[in-house]
Design brief:
The complex is a heterodimer of chains A (177) and B (636).
Chain A: H1 11-36, H2 42-45, E1 50-53, E2 62-67, E3 70-76, H3 79-87, E4 108-112, E5 135-139, E6 144-147, E7 152-154, E8 166-170, E9 173-176
Antiparallel strand pairs in A: 1-9, 2-3, 3-4, 5-6, 6-7, 8-9
Chain B: H1 8-21, H2 26-34, H3 42-68, H4 78-87, H5 92-120, H6 128-150, H7 155-166, H8 175-183, H9 190-215, H10 224-240, H11 270-278, H12 282-294, H13 299-302, H14 314-334, H15 341-367, H16 374-396, H17 421-433, E1 441-445, H18 456-464, E2 467-470, E3 479-482, E4 488-489, H19 496-502, H20 522-529, E5 546-547, E6 555-556, H21 577-592, H22 596-622
Helix pairs in contact in B: 3-5, 3-9, 4-5, 5-6, 5-10, 6-7, 6-9, 10-22, 11-12, 11-14, 11-15, 14-15, 14-16, 17-21, 20-21
Classes of the chains: A alpha+beta (177), B mainly alpha (636).
Chain lengths: 177, 636
């Protein structure tokens, strides 16, 4: 390669720069649609909401339903569980949230059953499964403990179990999504 | 002429230019921008096609990898997954159309390259090895393109694959076993689709490897200005005529029970297909088709004349252009029905194809230097003009358009046209009130009606008015529920059998892709709806059918549905039968090509960008070309 000599910029330099910049921009812009295809598609985004019939769930029981490919916990809480959730000192929680902010009706807790640490599904839905130190859920992957409001109390998880958008259609039916 | 300018822009320009000059391949990039004169003739274009092919290979691999991430190689899901790419995956239609038309452009460029090498006799020593590598590339491309065409799993995919794989059954004794081995079953099915998918993914890497050997030490980046012009042509194809080079039947899902009446491959295989059909014997036909490609390997042995290039040999030029014309003729015949005068033409053209290689080339080797004069020169020029004209005519004629339909004046005609929302709303109204009684549209979801200008509440109401099957519920039973915006327009029948039973054995087709899957598109829909009439005297109509002039075979199972004044439109638009038919046709056109407006808008942006880039590069070329460039060695 020849030695580069410093010369004042010319119109020719400008044209070269413009061509290169436009060319690079064009290459980048044509890569964008390729990357764009990997984002969730329109049918995925428009995925139907689901309706859940609460009538068969007895007090103290919980069911797992699938919504947008994720497990959602629906728990019919006992008065003792509700009281435990209400009594917790919110200020001391890692992710401070009152129980009232997390439920529409106190006896029904609806939460996305995905541990906020690294995405495992916590145990505690079925009787006999460990429910952790606070009577909620226990994630066996890395040992996160959730209380009866789905709030993280112990372990590596950074946040409470997410509450999905849902509404009560009537006393025994909810629609999630 | 390069006066110093002290503005910020020039300094920035210099900064960028200096930065690019430090990149690998910087000399090639800089020379690619300015080093060639503006290509203005076939000869100069011809020199570039090799590097264009390399560029297209990169495009095909990039788009192909993305498509593979969304495609499902299963007979039950392949067609649906491709339609999902077209409708739901963001920018999916663009990636697929680039890939689909990229294949056509790839073959166009490869064929131009091939013919240019035949003309310049680039197969002469010491370049025989290069030539044979090129023929290997063509064979690999043929295999890859053939398997790629099977993947969308439309009617042409299935039946094209059936015909070509069945060619192996011509092998004596073990033929049937070879075919069963290729298929992995008793017919083309999921195992076939799966292996074709894997091979279609794999072979391009073999093509890449052979390309590297074929390119040798030649410069990869040649003329970026010419590349820009080529891209502009590709942009017109992708954004305005994405289906022009394909057959509409391939938008009909594959049906192993029905073969399309006019079976034909993609345009780049038409000459080979014509050769196959020209021979009345099965084994000989298959051998002839294979030989038509393989004979290229032998060209360096068949033409041993030591003269350089084609030009000093006028009779060679005549022979070359005759041969090129013959190939185009074969392609044209390949798209015609295999009967009557076309069969005779196919046989003559096939005979001449082989005659050129096996007789004309060897004889010219000995005869050529003797004859000189004006006659062969004039003949060659005339034939050349004729060949170019034939090529242009062949490219302009669309596939599958047998009968001419009255072209309607649609709102989306013209390069910048779009849909008329009011017309689409009327079409949707007629579909809902009438067509939906028999026809579903399983690829169109209620939520997509937003494109017609409906609000969220209206769409929810449209959806809720229809019932869709869902389930199983907690008891394991399927149940009916009102539709949601995310549901597709449901079919009124639970399955195809029920649809046939309720309609005298004729299944009402799903309307999602009807316009796109018919030669003539929306014009065909109008022609069908308005095509009813009294059968000509003496015509025997099958039971439960109606005479329809526009329907293939003229006996349609659907009763006339559209009458003057049959519908009331809120916007007070005309409601005579002709107007209503147009409204439905427009709605079906939208249903089959919902991306049309976005596609043209994107095409416009790409075109403006390419134009800007070309103007800039042209200015550079015109300015001080070769001021700082090392002199290019002149080589032809």
């Amino acid at each position: 390669m020849s030695e580069h000599v410093e010369t004042p910029p010319t119109r020719r330099d400008f044209l070269f720069g413009a061509v290169y910049a436009a060319g690079a921009g064009g290459v980048l812009a044509s890569l964008l649609p390729l990357a764009d295809t990997l984002a969730p598609a329109a049918d995925t985004l428009a995925l139907a909401s689901i309706e859940v019939d609460l009538a068969p769930i007895l007090e103290g029981q919980a069911i797992t339903v699938m919504w947008q490919g994720k497990a959602v916990f629906v728990r019919h809480r006992t008065p003792a569980e509700i009281a435990a959730a209400r009594e917790a000192d919110v200020a001391k929680l890692r992710d401070p949230q009152t129980d009232a902010d997390r439920v529409l009706r106190p006896e029904w807790l609806v939460a996305v059953g995905v541990c906020t640490h690294l995405g495992c599904v916590p145990l505690g839905q079925r009787s006999g499964q460990p429910r952790g130190d606070h009577g909620g859920w226990f994630c066996p992957c890395h040992g996160a403990h959730y209380d009866t409001s789905g709030r993280v109390r112990k372990g590596p998880a950074p946040a409470n179990l997410a509450v999905p958008p849902y509404v009560f259609l009537d006393d025994t039916r909810i629609r999630i999504g | 002429m390069t006066a110093p300018l002290s503005s910020r822009a020039t300094r920035l320009g210099k900064l960028i230019a200096t930065a690019v000059d430090r990149l690998p391949l910087s000399t090639q990039i800089r020379r690619g921008v300015v080093d060639h004169p503006v290509p203005n003739s076939f000869e100069r274009w011809g020199r570039l096609v090799g590097s264009l092919a390399a560029f297209l290979l990169a495009v095909m691999i990039a788009t192909g990898v993305i498509l593979a991430m969304h495609y499902t190689p299963h007979v039950d899901h392949a067609f649906d997954s491709v339609e999902r790419i077209m409708r739901d995956v963001s920018s999916g239609w663009m990636v697929r159309y680039v890939h689909k038309n990229g294949a056509s452009l790839f073959f166009a460029v490869a064929y131009i390259h091939l013919f240019r090498c035949l003309y310049l006799r680039s197969y002469r020593p010491p370049r025989e090895r290069m030539w044979r590598l090129g023929v290997c590339l063509l064979l690999l491309m043929t295999a890859t393109a053939f398997m790629g065409y099977v993947l969308p799993w439309g009617q042409m995919s299935l039946w094209g694959a059936t015909v070509i794989t069945s060619a192996f059954s011509a092998v004596p004794v073990v033929g049937e076993r070879i075919v069963a081995f290729l298929w992995g079953g008793y017919a083309i099915g999921t195992p076939t689709l799966n292996r074709f998918f894997v091979l279609h993914f794999l072979l391009p890497f073999a093509i890449f490897g052979v390309t590297v050997a074929h390119l040798g030490r030649r410069r990869l980046i040649k003329d970026l200005f010419a590349l820009g012009i080529f891209l502009a042509a590709g942009c017109v194809l992708v954004f305005w005529f994405p289906d022009h080079l394909g057959h509409p039947d391939n938008y009909v899902p594959a049906d192993p029970a029905v073969t399309p009446p006019h079976l034909m491959p993609e345009w780049y295989f038409l000459p080979l297909y014509a050769v196959l059909r020209a021979v009345p014997d099965k084994l000989v036909g298959v051998v002839a088709m294979a030989a038509a490609l393989l004979v290229l390997f032998a060209v360096p042995r068949l033409d041993r004349s030591s003269a350089h290039g084609g030009r000093p040999r006028p009779w060679f030029a005549v022979a070359f252009w005759l041969f090129a014309l013959d190939c185009i003729l074969l392609g044209y015949i390949g798209a015609k029905p295999a009967e009557g005068v076309w069969m005779i033409a196919a046989r003559l053209a096939t005979a001449y194809y082989f005659l050129h290689f096996l007789l004309v080339l060897p004889v010219l080797t000995h005869v050529e230097p003797a004859a000189r004069g004006r006659l062969p020169g004039l003949a060659a020029t005339g034939l050349k003009a004729l060949t170019v004209l034939a090529a242009v005519l062949a490219v302009a004629s669309p596939f599958g358009g047998g009968e001419t339909l009255r072209a309607q004046d649609w709102s989306w005609r013209g390069p910048f046209g779009g849909y008329d929302p009011a017309q689409l709303q009327r079409g949707h109204q007629v579909y809902s009130q009438s067509c939906a009684a028999c026809h579903g549209m399983k690829r169109v979801r209620f939520r997509e009606l937003a494109a017609l200008g409906y609000g969220e509440a209206e769409i929810a109401a449209f959806a809720a008015a229809r019932f869709v099957t869902d389930g199983p519920d907690d008891e394991g039973e399927m149940f009916e529920r009102p539709g949601l915006p995310s549901d597709a327009f449901p079919s009124p029948f639970p399955n195809d059998r029920a649809a046939m039973a309720a309609n005298g054995g004729a299944k009402p087709p799903d309307l999602s892709l009807l316009a796109k899957a018919s030669a003539g598109g929306a014009d065909y829909v109008v022609a069908i709806l308005n095509g009813y009439g009294e059968p000509p005297p003496g015509t025997e109509m099958p039971s439960n059918t109606y005479y329809n002039i526009a329907f293939p075979g003229h006996a349609i199972a659907m009763a006339p549905q559209i009458f003057d004044g049959g519908f009331e439109f809120a916007d007070g638009a005309p409601n005579d039968a002709a107007a209503v038919a147009r409204d439905i046709a427009a709605f079906l056109q939208w249903a089959s090509e919902p991306e049309l407006e976005a596609r043209r808008a994107m095409g416009l942006r790409v075109a403006v960008f390419l134009l800007t880039l070309l103007v800039l590069m042209y200015a550079l070329k015109r300015r001080d070309r070769a001021v700082t460039m090392p002199k290019r060695r002149v080589k032809t």
